């Protein structure tokens, strides 16, 4: 099955009415993946046996007619652990790692009867914005195979955009769900920090990481967030706030909503087409009854520095566990224990991961801590205050998701500074822990362009509400890539 | 531009992080890290006097739980992930390098 013209509801209807069995749906999904993924390379692992086994169980039990995810094929980014199924974080250091438990978000989807068809490609340990930092393969953008799919959740976003699955999980530390969603013309939500359990998400920046859904439309996105949100005893930072039905506000419209556009996000460095898409989106929201005004996030220019200090520091600590002893890659010719550590890590990690570990180690080291880590943490407070001030008067922030549409494979990879600057529009949301969603909002030379809707903490409802109103008034999310180019 | 980090410092930081940077890669990493740390230094322009640092944005404080073992009974699955095992243990090379004990 190719999912271009489908939604969770339309496929669920076929399953519930027995027009198709879960087994046949999985078989067709796997066939399509085999065909499409020979060009797109979105999957590191396709779990044919596991998916067919689960489908058989679902068919025996019957489709739950009140549950859109019952029997639904989905994909999981390869930094979420899946019991017995190879989980690599796209790193050589985990190339043969088989987890002994399921990440909470994965388990929640499994318990609802969704069927994991495989693990998607990403930048190694989620460090990067193009999925080119994968140790294993290059994923291609379905809209133009010479372009990157974005990252780090590039595999999940490309799989959804290419019609391989209707929904996939990604993770977002500085934009890793929203930016690839923008590059691939799909919907990607980074929920509020604490909304979804991080248990079983291979840690990168623990105070920033958040799991979220990537889908073809807003309703499907809210449906998947309904499934994965909630407090988890295994993640003590997960919130115990009541989980609303995230689909409940999708038809409320935007009349009376106050939307702010940060002037700093529209400044130099922004591609002209992307800027126009944001302005057009603002016009649509006005037409639909919202008010749109310019606002200011004055510390935006310091976000990249603060983010890369904080995220690299947290990464340098989190990645200490990869030592070649209990699991993962061990260098072959290690003569002593110290040798096992140093050689396994030096051979197992890619260059970008090494850079981040060193940046973090440096920022935390004696003599530099106050000037770098502590200073960044203080700037983070100022950035949070900027948002708090805006959200006293505004319900939402509208902004470009990424400064440009998808760029060429190999274009930015050699220059980490350029890569880092590309995150300037997405990472403030992570530093402040806010919900942010990228929705398809236009095109530039045949490539999709997304805009970002940012809400108050724990107010995903309003983000979805506005996203849905925009989606109902436009047809950007109905466009699909003509695979093989010529869009 | 003044140098923010030297090759010797990069070597030292790599050592702290249990990484080895080969001599031929040292200039490449040093140049890149130097540029990025230059970017980090732009933060010195921000007045942060009296500003509390933020280390987490969770809404949870001091969550308590019972200290109960969970999902513990998977010895073989755990060992299957280890690069080298023997008799139910994980094998590692010698910890003390005896070659230096010859005095």
Automatic annotation (TrEMBL), chain A:
Cite the Amidase domain residue spans from the record: 24-462
- EC number of this enzyme: 6.3.5.7
GO cellular component, alphabetical, reads: glutamyl-tRNA(Gln) amidotransferase complex
Give the keywords, sorted: ATP-binding, Ligase, Nucleotide-binding, Protein biosynthesis, Transferase
A single Gene Ontology biological process assigned to it is: translation
Q: Where is the active site?
A: 77 (charge relay system), 152 (charge relay system), 176 (acyl-ester intermediate)
Q: Which reaction does it catalyse?
A: L-glutamyl-tRNA(Gln) + L-glutamine + ATP + H2O = L-glutaminyl-tRNA(Gln) + L-glutamate + ADP + phosphate + H(+)
Mention any Pfam family matching this sequence: Amidase
EC class of the enzyme, as a word: ligase
**An MF annotation (GO) of this entry:** ATP binding
| HAMAP family listed in its UniProt record | GatA
Instruction: Indicate the quaternary assembly.
Output: Heterotrimer of A, B and C subunits.
Cite the PANTHER family for this sequence: GLUTAMYL-TRNA(GLN) AMIDOTRANSFERASE SUBUNIT A, TRANSAMIDASE
Q: What does this protein do?
A: Allows the formation of correctly charged Gln-tRNA(Gln) through the transamidation of misacylated Glu-tRNA(Gln) in organisms which lack glutaminyl-tRNA synthetase. The reaction takes place in the presence of glutamine and ATP through an activated gamma-phospho-Glu-tRNA(Gln).
Its family remark reads: Belongs to the amidase family. GatA subfamily.
According to UniProt, the name of this protein is Glutamyl-tRNA(Gln) amidotransferase subunit A
Q: Which species does the entry assign this protein to? A: Lentilactobacillus diolivorans DSM 14421
Source taxonomy: Bacteria, Bacillati, Bacillota, Bacilli, Lactobacillales
Give the gene that encodes this protein: gatA
From TrEMBL, chain B:
Enumerate the UniProt keywords alphabetically. ATP-binding, Ligase, Nucleotide-binding, Protein biosynthesis, Transferase
Q: What class of enzyme is it?
A: ligase
What catalytic activity does the UniProt entry give for this protein? Answer: L-glutamyl-tRNA(Gln) + L-glutamine + ATP + H2O = L-glutaminyl-tRNA(Gln) + L-glutamate + ADP + phosphate + H(+); L-aspartyl-tRNA(Asn) + L-glutamine + ATP + H2O = L-asparaginyl-tRNA(Asn) + L-glutamate + ADP + phosphate + 2 H(+)
Give EC number(s), comma-separated: 6.3.5.-
| InterPro entries xrefs | Asp/Glu-ADT_sf_sub_c, GatC
Q: Name a Pfam family for this protein.
A: GatC
Q: Name one GO molecular function term.
A: ATP binding
Q: How does it assemble?
A: Heterotrimer of A, B and C subunits.
Outline what the protein does.
Answer: Allows the formation of correctly charged Asn-tRNA(Asn) or Gln-tRNA(Gln) through the transamidation of misacylated Asp-tRNA(Asn) or Glu-tRNA(Gln) in organisms which lack either or both of asparaginyl-tRNA or glutaminyl-tRNA synthetases. The reaction takes place in the presence of glutamine and ATP through an activated phospho-Asp-tRNA(Asn) or phospho-Glu-tRNA(Gln).
Family as reported in the entry's similarity comment: Belongs to the GatC family.
Name the HAMAP family on file: GatC
Protein name (Swiss-Prot/TrEMBL): Aspartyl/glutamyl-tRNA(Asn/Gln) amidotransferase subunit C
- Record the organism: Lentilactobacillus diolivorans DSM 14421
